[in-house]
Amino acid sequence: MSSKKLPVLLAALLLKVTSSLAQGGPAPSQAPPPDPDYQEVSVPVPRAVSLIMDVAKVLTTTDSKKDKIQDLVDRRRARSEKQDQSIIITIPKNKLTRTLGLVE
User: Fold this and answer.
1) Which of 5-19, 44-58, 84-98 is the least confident region?
2) Per-residue pLDDT tens digits for 12-35
3) Which candidate, 90, 18, 20, 91, places its Cα nearest to that of 61?
4) How far is 17 from 76, CA to CA, in rounded Å?
5) Cβ contact 61:71 at 8 Å
6) To bridge 97 with a disulfide, which of 31, 37, 56, 102 should be the other Cys (CB 3.0-4.6 Å)?
7) Which among 97, 87, 95 is positioned nearest to 39, based on CA atoms?
8) Reduced to 3 states, what is the DSSP secondary structure of residue 80?
9) 89 in helix, strand or coil?
């Protein structure tokens, strides 16, 4: 992936996080099926960005049964074991994203 696409993907990430914080987001078990007009893209990011994403996901969960701090520690431990610092972004398949080369 070229470095020219990174600012666009980071902007999409910021919009996704702010919209999910504003809406509260659906519970993970209630996630809708993937839309064929969207494509999921895995983007490698620095550790700080993945940390922010993990904190945002833990803070916005509606599951009150889990301890949020322990859930965050578990997420970070799993990422460290897998050596995976990438995030998954859902991008719409439209003329703009095809022109930018973000989707097929």
Assistant:
1) 5-19
2) 776 676 666 555 544 455 556 666
3) 20
4) 18
5) yes
6) 102
7) 97
8) helix
9) strand
* Selection from 34, 48, 32, 31 nearest residue 85 by Cα: 48
pLDDT band, residue 36 (cuts 50/70/90): confident
Q: Nearest Cα to 33, choosing from 90, 93, 104? A: 90
**Residues 72, 66: contact at Cβ < 8 Å?**
no
Q: What does the block give as tokens for 90? A: 């859902």
To which residue do tokens 């599951």 refer? 63
Buried/exposed code over 81-98 (b: 16+ C-beta within 10 A; e: otherwise) = eeeebebebebeeeeebe
Dig out the tokens for 84 from the structure.
């995976």
Retrieve residue 37's tokens: 């007009």
CB 68 within 8 A of CB 61: yes
Which residue type is seen at 87?
I
User: Token digits for 74?
Assistant: 């578990």
User: For residue 38, what are the β-bridge partners?
Assistant: 92
